[in-house]
Hints:
The structure is a homotetramer.
Chain A: E1 2-6, H1 11-28, E2 33-37, H2 49-57, E3 62-64, H3 75-78, E4 100-104, E5 110-117, H4 128-138, E6 147-153, H5 157-166, E7 173-177, E8 187-188, E9 194-196, H6 214-222, E10 238-245, E11 252-260
The structure holds fe (ii) ion (8 copies).
Binding site for Fe cation 2 (chains A, B, C, D): 39, 67, 153, 178
Active site (chains A, B, C, D): 68
GO molecular function (chains A, B, C, D): 2',3'-cyclic-nucleotide 3'-phosphodiesterase activity; metal ion binding
Amino acid sequence: MRLLFLGDVVGRAGRAAVVGQLPGLVSRWALDFVVVNGENAAGGFGITEDIAQDLLDAGADVVTTGNHVWDQREALVFIERQPRLLRPLNYPAGTPGRGANLFVARNGARVLVINAMGRVFMEPLDDPFAAIEAALSACPLGEQADAVVIDFHAETTSEKQAVGFFVDGRASLVVGTHTHVPTADHRILPDGTAFMTDVGMCGDYESVIGMDRDEPLNRFLRRIPAGRFQPANGEATLSGVAVEIDETTGLARAVHPVRIGGRLSQIEPPFWA
Amino acid sequence: MRLLFLGDVVGRAGRAAVVGQLPGLVSRWALDFVVVNGENAAGGFGITEDIAQDLLDAGADVVTTGNHVWDQREALVFIERQPRLLRPLNYPAGTPGRGANLFVARNGARVLVINAMGRVFMEPLDDPFAAIEAALSACPLGEQADAVVIDFHAETTSEKQAVGFFVDGRASLVVGTHTHVPTADHRILPDGTAFMTDVGMCGDYESVIGMDRDEPLNRFLRRIPAGRFQPANGEATLSGVAVEIDETTGLARAVHPVRIGGRLSQIEPPFWA
Amino acid sequence: MRLLFLGDVVGRAGRAAVVGQLPGLVSRWALDFVVVNGENAAGGFGITEDIAQDLLDAGADVVTTGNHVWDQREALVFIERQPRLLRPLNYPAGTPGRGANLFVARNGARVLVINAMGRVFMEPLDDPFAAIEAALSACPLGEQADAVVIDFHAETTSEKQAVGFFVDGRASLVVGTHTHVPTADHRILPDGTAFMTDVGMCGDYESVIGMDRDEPLNRFLRRIPAGRFQPANGEATLSGVAVEIDETTGLARAVHPVRIGGRLSQIEPPFWA
Amino acid sequence: MRLLFLGDVVGRAGRAAVVGQLPGLVSRWALDFVVVNGENAAGGFGITEDIAQDLLDAGADVVTTGNHVWDQREALVFIERQPRLLRPLNYPAGTPGRGANLFVARNGARVLVINAMGRVFMEPLDDPFAAIEAALSACPLGEQADAVVIDFHAETTSEKQAVGFFVDGRASLVVGTHTHVPTADHRILPDGTAFMTDVGMCGDYESVIGMDRDEPLNRFLRRIPAGRFQPANGEATLSGVAVEIDETTGLARAVHPVRIGGRLSQIEPPFWA
Lengths: 273, 273, 273, 273
Ligand SMILES: [Fe+2]
Ligand SMILES: [Fe+2]
Ligand SMILES: [Fe+2]
Ligand SMILES: [Fe+2]
Ligand SMILES: [Fe+2]
Ligand SMILES: [Fe+2]
Ligand SMILES: [Fe+2]
Ligand SMILES: [Fe+2]
């Protein structure tokens, strides 16, 4: 089973890359399932219903999010009628939308997608480890789920790696998101879960985490805002990770980064060539 | 001019990788200058005089550090007699040791090495941007320095990228350290400075940032320490970045990650093959 | 009904004040119930079984704690056999000890004591608001409980005040602890709950939050530890709050700070004179 | 010499208290010098030129600020023509306005006022201890200054107390601001500096730090903003500290809290009765 995960889509440049290239990848690589993190898709901050639909139309099966999920307030409403949009699982009880859901892939496999948020240097939400445990218990890999994908949106490498080991052997893939920079440590953990500390963003890398660099630099140097953060508008790099999942065990057989277009070194999964 | 930068050496496994492999790389690649971050070399926490000497003997011209620099208290003393060990520049006035220094490379080039620390989600030190500016002004690239290397030890990708753009065209290389995970965004910035958000660690990656995973996982799950952090002892990956520097301008001609041994995907600079 | 709450007991000086003065206050004021926060009682860090017993022997009915609860590791064990020692309620499921419990006061009243910890600028624990809600629902004021006391151990004034309003009318008293400085904003909230943002510490105030000032000052000035934190050993001020609780409603009729001995201005509840 | 310091003025209610009562206090107590922290005077966020003028007209000699100083962007401009408005001293070089200045009191005394900001759980600015040291050295008590007042705007009690001991004997008064809650630990430190960890706010205390409590409670409970923070509009408590300064030494002879109006217990300096 062929799964692609794309990191945080940032602004117009990021959306253009996804909309322009994902349909071709779905068919070229015969993808069974695609997850895209869309928390920065609307001008860098949040996501609208139209933009979520654009990402789904381009080939995403599920759109995950993170700390920016509610920046566009309409998300609080339309998330209730859009089961393919997830928000972090560990928001308080009563939060609109869902943090985990079961989907059917193109090959018929049942894929559990979990979106959770870290707490180190982030907002204080409920315990993500306990929340992930509960979601996995309700729908275990090899029983109700044929594959399990976890988007763990977090700041520190340590918390992300801890989640990887916590679910090793119980998930097909754990990816970190949020830092907007791809890491080079993709690998299969000892018990079969594919892991990558951060998949990076789909955005213009000639920037400070996807934003035009003037205002971030101004704030670091002067400590006084001079304007808003604006997404950088150069060509985006589509940044993500490709996983070949064993259909009997639901564990990873191969994992490889994907970087297409823009400023970063280009790379594609050799096993789908 | 050929420069190699290796990220945070973690514990015995990291030291074994550096001591075992760096001498061979220096000769195979005809390296002119080598910088190694050694802040976690002593059992994961700090550095001793003997260990610093081991890293220098293995081929490092300079050993940089970060927030763990003083974990072994002897560092406060021996740093005064070891000019090749740097501590973050932006500690208060009066701190033992130096945060920047000029060295002579094997090819005779004068290399300014600056070690500074970020402040976002880190300890509050003096402004690293102002400190770097002062160090660059005192010894500018193309005047007193033929090459400039900056080790910016910081948590967030945004602060590291801001430093990159801040000195673009005024340094040969800016690398981030501290997260212990290599990023895949190595590139040459518009005005000629090679950049990589984090070079990763020289340590065992089957771990939580180089540490045996039991205690980190215990703390995330139970929030109560059950013991000390211990470095993981599996085979380390030597993780760093290779830069080809133009000897007339001091700017980067090529940049490429290095990952040798251990669990990560293996990669070497094609331009030195 | 007469209730006294004393803030964080710090080290030997703090213990001496409690052991020396609390028995006299219990009899002089005819106290029905006494709660003492003991998280810093053992050398400034945590609490031992012997020290907990000393505080109970001196007249405390319950000893609450906070982020330092496990600093003395024996607390993980003896808390299981000491129901009068509470640890923050919002630790993960499975944590030793209890965060809330029902006690019988000298006047026969059933007193629910809840100890919870804030999350702003603190460790990430479970949601304290949800945890307090659950504890109150299980044992509501006016039903299973004749009085309810909440020790909310937190850094920021905003989170503490939010807890006050959250339970207003459902608790007899909400006090903040942790900053080691008494606030002067004791009052009865609109629906009858007595509130004080922080009750301060029982410790020597010629200090930095109860600790000898040399090492804290050293760390602020030099950013490098030069030794351990040691409790200051001058005469402690007993610092707390006195509440007169209506026995029919369980709400507060009067609230007043208590400060006896040491460096701070001296004050006692006029309504018990 | 008689000095009054009033804490953070919050919104319309806080301004009404200052404008309504300060003129009377100046004459009734024959005040020589008045400092008011105005960082929240404009709708809770920042200060405008008109509002600064209102506070000065009401009797303030100097208006200090804190982290909210630039929330009203006009402050970046008018601070340059208003030497009686201070911003934190430890902003980067080149920041508009001043962080310390010498003023002449009604009794002819030269008063150095320093406004600095802490770094623990605050924005990373330059070292406040070094900045205060430099300002004191440039204008020492007993030489160029007859009195020295320091408004240290900070979150933690420890950093504020450390500043107190750091300048003990070199300043007339150190007050903390920012938490919006008055502490009850006013005292004269061993070498003669009056100190109070926080003077509290001039605002409506039936609130969460001066703000209408609905939105703060909503955010703590749901973690999703539902609207803006609005200042609470009930009667404000004028909250501050009164200091009697020895005119020969410039050190404190007496210190006492001031709380007039609103919800808190009422208190006035007995030594000026
Ligand atoms: Fe993002
Ligand atoms: Fe994010
Ligand atoms: Fe490190
Ligand atoms: Fe580090
Ligand atoms: Fe405490
Ligand atoms: Fe505490
Ligand atoms: Fe304020
Ligand atoms: Fe403030």
